[in-house]
Amino acid sequence: MKEQKPITVLINGKATAFKEVQKEKESPTKEIAAAVYTEETTGWEIIDSEGSGKILDFKKVVSTVPRPSALRKKWSKRRMVLMDRNRNTSLFSKKFITAVIAAILTGCTFGGIILMLFTGETASTQSETAAAQQASASSKAQAPATIPSISMDFHAAQNGLFSTKKKAEEISKDMKDQGYAASVYKQGANYSVLIGLGNKKEEARALADVYKFKGVEVWPKQLDASYTDLKIPHKMDEPFIVNGKILLQNVITLSQVPTLSKKAKDSIMKDYEGWKAYGDKQHEQWPAKQEKAVRNYEKDISRALTRLTANRPGEVDWPLQQAVLDSFVSYTKLLEVLK
């Protein structure tokens, strides 16, 4: 046996040593070849095979797989499309949008046909149904309704509580003659002479302190002016009544602010104009007593807003406080009418 020749083979970059055994009659190996099968049609090419002891490096060679002519043409077209960089592949291309619209129209048409076949309804029938539902909703809005509750908690500066309306009116007139604000408000079986009003205790107390400083007798008092089960001729009148309360509460608070910004003035006037516009449109459908009560409140709150948005003196604006008290009394009389 002859001497073994070492051979190092590099496959995919990894070196492996081999020894070749030769018999006496065998000739020395001149070439080494390798074949590797992959999913692609590939071959391996020997870069260097001469001389013993040298590193053999194999290079992968990918060859084209023969295909039938039809498949070759199809593959060729596909490659051309993929290589076309100017092709519009946007999700919202014209062709895509057109296809979507066509699908929607087709679906709607087909759905309408199926609906007609199984229910006998047409588009006109559906329109008539919708119109009937709208008319029903409108009739419900115009139907009589009940306001469960209008809750009003105020804090007042009170000059006195009297058992007769005549005595209360005499005291109220005397206060006005002195240049102050005063209104008569019925509380149960008695009559109260109110000379100041606030949404909060602090607001009423501030007015009471002014009266005390001027030597006028005053007693702070909490007023519960809540009403329940109010009857209204139309359901849509409820927001009008509720917004009337909110408008009054805002006027009461702002009446104690020395100076209002333009934004605050514009905001409250916008609220008032929207509230009044509904009353102007609806008043002909109200009973005479309700219409009269609404008009009285509208007159008083309008007078309060006129004073509120005008340039006011730095001290207490007594005409404004009078308009606020009158607005409170006229609003409670409106609620009394709805009982």
From TrEMBL:
<feature type="domain" description="SPOR">
    <location>
        <begin position="158"/>
        <end position="212"/>
    </location>
</feature>
<protein>
    <submittedName>
        <fullName>SPOR domain-containing protein</fullName>
    </submittedName>
</protein>
<dbReference type="Pfam" id="PF05036">
    <property type="entry name" value="SPOR"/>
</dbReference>
<feature type="transmembrane region" description="Helical">
    <location>
        <begin position="96"/>
        <end position="118"/>
    </location>
</feature>
<keyword id="KW-1133">Transmembrane helix</keyword>
<dbReference type="InterPro" id="IPR036680">
    <property type="entry name" value="SPOR-like_sf"/>
</dbReference>
<keyword id="KW-0472">Membrane</keyword>
<keyword id="KW-0812">Transmembrane</keyword>
<dbReference type="InterPro" id="IPR007730">
    <property type="entry name" value="SPOR-like_dom"/>
</dbReference>
